[in-house]
Design goal:
The complex is a heterodimer of chains A (448) and B (269). Chain A is an alpha/beta fold. Helix content of chain A is 27%, strand content 20%. Among the domains of chain A are: 190 residues, NADH-ubiquinone oxidoreductase 51kDa subunit (Rossmann fold), CATH 3.40.50.11540; 71 residues, no CATH class. In chain A, β6 and β7 form a beta hairpin. Helix content of chain B is 33%, strand content 12%. In chain B, the strands form 4 sheets. In chain B, strands 1-4 form a two-stranded antiparallel ribbon. Chain B has a two-stranded antiparallel ribbon with strand order 2-3. Chain B has a two-stranded antiparallel ribbon with strand order 5-8. Classes of the chains: A alpha/beta (448), B alpha+beta (269).
Chain lengths: 448, 269
């Protein structure tokens, strides 16, 4: 066990105002169980889960309410005991509608646990992967990629390094930070389970150097771990938490274009995901709740709340003392990659790491201008793309021109738009262009 | 020889040789083309709008002469053009009905609710891709002018948050129909004057919540329209194959979404 500075740092990136002090000192607080939970079926990347309950059913906490609908999908469990009152459409934080199981929670909570594997060190990896999949564990950093898929790489792609992602480079958010401080021992067991499943030689815990207390907590938790284990201290820079950038910072390896971390022998898991793996394997608890940071200068008491998935944002705001003054913008997630929401009647999910309420003085409403060809976005892009050129192609509807410029490699981190002096909505252009390419590819798949 | 003479001779020589080669090619390698194609192409308006379904006017002219395509497909040219071509080719002139594009939404910013302040790219497809658009109604016109930008004759204006087609200018090329991400624009006979300007398939109460001028699915108009308005779920749809002249439908529509076109301006005005 050692603590090492990261040997490399990715090129580009930005240094936004982190504003983490608002919520960093607030210990994780459990939200009182809301009377009603709206559990969305799409809390992960891939196909939405298929409901297996119907209106009128009584469910126990942790009971399966929807099964995975494909390989890249994840089951959904009831976060609390109660009665299913409806299966209806709901708007999710990303603005898309999806089906949701609405549960009226019961005053008496009954819990239906999954099987546990206290002897996981002696359990077959396959069995553990199945169990983690059945517990609905998905990547909790934001994308929600099913962990079961990440943990079963093909046999020709051996994994030698597991990176535990505790960078939390997104401004304002502190949920992972608090998890590392308060649940270090559990995260350690989760990380060791992941390492055991993958048979990886090395384990790295990657944390940005602006969280010295988290670094100390992780050092302490992992101090007597066997093998090649180290806390890698990353230079504070956005987007250090992004998978590909982090792999480079920690190992110096570069994920090839269009490739996956497993192509360079790495698997990156968020610290909260490691906790969820621990919870599923040791406690038999499916992923039904998570810590969400409610922060910003327009919330009365910024907090880190442990809330069941399916809690409405309005319940979270109420639990934090309500809106202070006026909230001009409400963002689900962090300010860089989050989605502005138009209503607080939106449920949380497994990937909801933050809710940000900003006052009018934090919001500047600007109009965009033509590109002045200054090249700052090119310097800032951590993927080494040319956002100026890409956005101009997409603006002119020349998607065929944008695709060879590696449009699909854009990670939508927002660094380019952050530095753009002409205030161009660069990420918005990228998202639109990527959506067109995705739609084309889907259409081409349908008609071979 | 001095360099100027050399280069003059060289360039001139190359020019002469090329001209000779071209003359020979013209004589022996030329593909005979029906001379009528060029004549028909001259008769077409040359807007190259693609509304006929062919790749521009020249391609359409070729199709008329070579593939025996109908000669009444050119919307900008209108009946006069169709008749001229038919007369030139000695064909019977087919009747031609002028069509125009119409935006089937009348929920402007005074009447329809916007549920969020959108300040992204001013493009309907981009707005639609961002949280499904800022309009309260999931079917209504977003008003960011994607249709207006593709219109080759500037017939579409964005006024008070929704798109409106100028009937007099529209050449029915159909570009706006393809550009609208919400599929709100339709090509309808220019003679039709009464329209249901709503595309919301939601039930009445849901429509009322987001728009003051939406179809609430009450079916009053279907009883008055003598079969010219049919119901598609909770939405009244005009069947343009049948004449709809009963102006009572306009007066009695509780949703105020059945509208009659303003009379066309007189040529002097």
């Amino acid at each position: 066990m050692a603590t090492i500075p990261s040997p490399h740092t990715f090129r580009g990136g930005i240094h936004p105002a982190y504003n983490k002090a608002l919520a960093a000192a607030a210990p994780i607080r459990e939200l009182p169980l809301p009377a009603r939970l709206t559990v969305p079926m799409s809390q992960h990347l891939g196909a939405p889960a298929k409901p297996v309950v119907k209106a009128g059913d009584t469910v126990a906490g942790g009971q399966l309410v929807a099964e995975a609908a494909g390989f890249i999908s994840a089951p959904v469990h009831a976060p609390a005991a109660g009665k299913v009152v409806a299966i209806e459409e709901t708007l999710t934080a990303s603005g898309r509608a999806c089906a949701a199981v609405v549960i009226e929670t019961a005053p008496e909570q009954v819990w239906q646990p999954l099987p546990t594997f206290p002897e996981w060190r002696f359990t077959d990896a396959k069995q553990l992967i199945e169990h983690i999949g059945a517990a609905g564990v998905v990547g909790m950093g934001g994308a929600g990629f099913p962990t079961r898929v990440k943990l079963s790489p093909p046999s020709d792609k051996p994994i030698d390094t597991v990176i535990l992602n505790g960078a939390e480079c997104e401004p304002y958010l502190t949920s992972d930070h608090r998890m590392m401080l308060e649940h270090a021992a559990e995260i350690r067991i989760g990380a060791e389970i992941i390492r055991h499943i993958l048979g990886a030689r090395s384990l790295r815990i990657a944390i940005e150097d602006n969280k010295p207390d988290a670094i100390a907590a992780m050092e302490k938790a992992f101090q007597d771990t066997d093998g090649d284990v180290a806390v890698t201290v990353l230079r504070t820079s956005y987007p250090q938490g992004s998978e590909k950038q982090q792999i480079f910072s920690v190992t110096g390896r570069e994920v090839p274009r269009g490739g996956l971390p497993m192509d360079v022998g790495c698997v990156v898991e968020n610290v909260s995901t490691a906790f969820a793996v621990f919870d599923a394997v040791v406690n038999g608890r499916p992923l039904v709740r998570r810590v969400i940071t409610v922060t910003g200068d327009a919330i009365a008491q910024p907090a880190n709340l442990l809330a069941p998935c399916g809690t409405l944002y309005s319940d979270l705001v109420a639990a934090c003392g309500g809106v202070a003054g006026q909230a001009a913008k409400v963002i689900s997630g962090g300010p860089m990659m989050g989605f502005a929401v138009s209503s607080l009647a939106v449920p949380t999910g497994k990937t909801a790491s933050g809710l940000l309420l900003l006052s009018p003085k934090k919001i500047s409403d600007f109009s965009s201008q033509a590109c002045i060809a200054c090249g700052r976005c090119v310097d800032a892009c951590p993927m080494r793309l040319s956002p100026a050129e890409l956005s101009q192609c997409i603006e002119a509807d020349d998607i065929d021109g944008a695709e060879p410029l590696a449009l699909m490699d854009c990670i939508e981190c927002g660094s380019c738009a952050f530095v753009c002096p002409a205030r161009r909505p660069l990420v918005h252009h990228m998202r639109r262009g990527k959506a067109v390419v995705m739609a084309r590819r889907a259409a081409a798949k349908k008609t071979p | 020889m001095d360099p100027i003479t050399t280069s003059t001779l060289c360039i001139g020589g190359i020019g002469l040789a090329s001209a000779a080669a071209l003359a020979v090619a013209e004589k022996y390698l030329s593909v005979p083309q029906d001379p009528r194609i060029g004549k028909v192409a001259e008769m077409l308006p040359g807007a190259n709008c693609g509304g006929c379904g062919y790749a521009g006017c020249a391609d359409y002219a070729r199709a008329i002469v070579a593939d025996n395509a109908e000669c009444n497909l050119c919307a900008p040219g209108g009946p006069a053009c169709a008749q001229a071509i038919a007369a030139f080719l000695g064909r019977a002139a087919a009747a031609m009905e002028r069509r125009v594009a119409i935006v089937l939404c009348c929920g402007d910013d005074t009447e329809a609710l916007r549920r969020a302040a959108y300040n992204g790219i001013a493009d309907c497809a981009a707005a639609q891709a961002t949280a499904g658009g800022d309009k309260g109604c999931a079917y209504g016109c977003l008003g960011y002018g994607s249709c207006a930008r593709v219109c080759p004759v500037n017939a579409i204006r964005i006024a008070n948050g929704i798109a409106k087609v100028d009937k007099a200018l529209c050449i029915a090329c159909g570009k706006c129909v393809a550009a609208c991400p919400r599929k709100l624009i339709k090509l309808v006979p220019a003679a039709a004057e009464i329209h249901v300007l709503c595309s919301s398939k939601d039930k009445g109460p849901a429509v009322k919540k987001v728009c003051g001028t939406g179809c609430i699915g009450c079916r009053i108009c279907t009883k008055l329209a003598d079969g010219a308005i049919t119901m598609d779920g909770f939405l009244a749809v005009v069947d343009y194959a049948k004449p709809l002249t009963n102006e009572e439908t306009v007066a009695k529509c509780p949703g105020h979404c059945i509208r009659k076109d303003a009379p066309p301006p007189t040529p002097n005005s």
